[in-house]
Amino acid sequence: MTDVAVPAEVVAGHDAHDDGHHTSLGLSNTKLAMWLFLGSECLLFGALISTYLLSTANFIGEVVAGNPTVLATIPEALAEEFAAEGSVSPIFDIPFTSASSFILLMSSLTMVLAHKAISEGNYKNLRIFLATTAALGASFIAGQVYEFTVFFREGITYDGNLFGSAFFTLTGFHGVHVTGGILMLISLLIVSFRGKLQQDRAETVEIVGLYWHFVDIVWVLIFTIVYLIP
Amino acid sequence: MTELAAHTEAHDEHDHHPTEGQYWLVFVALVVLTAIEVAWSFIGLEGVALVAPLIVMMILKFFLVAGAFMHLYFDLKILNGRLFSWAFFGALLLAIGVYFVVFAAFRWEI
User: Out of A52, A56, A152, B22, which could bridge B18 as a Cys pair, Cβ 3.0 to 4.6 Å?
Assistant: First the structure.
């Protein structure tokens, strides 16, 4: 076999980033693939948020108009509150959801700090920040389970009416995405403890981070559109 | 530009990711914006006076997370002037436009 001389700079470049920065776009293929995936996720959540807005507007319109079929799907006291406010706001616990939002924003910070730690070869901090991010994500999910339980006890169910279906579908899909992110973080932790997540694989952490921040961004939208705007 | 030069340029841009202090600053800005959002929703305003500032703050938070935490601002600098950056913004504007047109059409029927 003929020996081929490879320039030292190219070899050094490969050592530093062996996951493929040599594309004409300036981004690695794996990172670009994640961006494309997130693009498709935008369409999914765009559709779910639109469905929620339209379904809830329809539901509240029927409640205010006194449609007996729709009123039969929720407790009388709740129907009176909805009709008086002209929105579903009375059922939301804004201080509690604000705390959940804070937890998710905090997890985005710890996620970028995890990426920074591996970029600097600080594996101890990498593990601390990955574990913290996963724990914060789990806290968010625990809060969501609590909220769903409260809704169920209040009489809002998945198959009861348009509002319940749209709300549980939208926030449930988001919760599933957070859970998927937690599994990715735990996988990274395991790989790190096995010594296979070294500085040259920093982009792997960055790509998982992209997914995690996207989930955070979706919550930023859901928090304002679903919870704060009546 | 040779492939090696482009590669070196990409490396230089990657070295300009935010510092730890800047990440903390973005986080504080996000928390402050969220606090203002919640406070605004409790003031008792209605209609556009309530919704417009909330939407503006939501968009600010969106771009803070996407730009700083997701490194979009820095990655787009790498792509600056190339076809992909135009494709990215073009597709984004098209998607937003289509979203509002479809939403308005449904809204019309309600």
Answer: B22
